[in-house]
Amino acid sequence: MSRRSGPSLDHAKIAKAGFLAGLGPFAAGVVGEFAGHSLLSSLPETVESALLTMEVLGVVVGFFVPVVFGAVLPLAECQAPISTTKSDCSHVSGSSRS
């Protein structure tokens, strides 16, 4: 079994971008609710549902993308194949494989 050869993903960059991608809809939903309720006495139910959905999806994306791309995938890439060759996992702290 040999390791996959090819370009490696920049996990830190993807995790940061994913967090910001989740922060955007969350912030838009919060600002939309505050602005909507301050300008109008009550928002239509569909608008409130859409803004709440944006907030929830923003939180979900903001939490799970950094966990998956910042922690899980880098560790999954470093699973050394069964051989005597040295694996290239120097980017993972605490790695003591030889």
How would you describe this structure to a colleague?
- Helix 1 (11-39) packs antiparallel against helix 2.
- The model has no long low-confidence stretch (mean pLDDT 82).
- The radius of gyration is 21 Å and the shape is rod-shaped.
- Helix content is 63%, strand content 0%.
- With 98 residues, the protein is mainly alpha-helical.
- The two termini are 17 Å apart.
- It contains two helices and no strands.
- It has a domain at 11-77.
**Low-confidence regions:** none
Share of helical residues: 55-70%
Q: Give the biggest beta sheet.
A: none
Report how far the terminal alpha carbons are from each other: 17 Å
- The global form is rod-shaped
Please give the number of β-strands: 0
H/E series, N to C? HH
Beta-strand portion reads: under 5%
Q: Helix/strand-derived class? A: mainly alpha
Summarize the topology.
Layout: H1 11-39, H2 45-77
Provide a compact summary of the structure.
By secondary structure, this protein is mainly alpha-helical. It has 2 helices and no strands. It has helices spanning 11-39, 45-77.
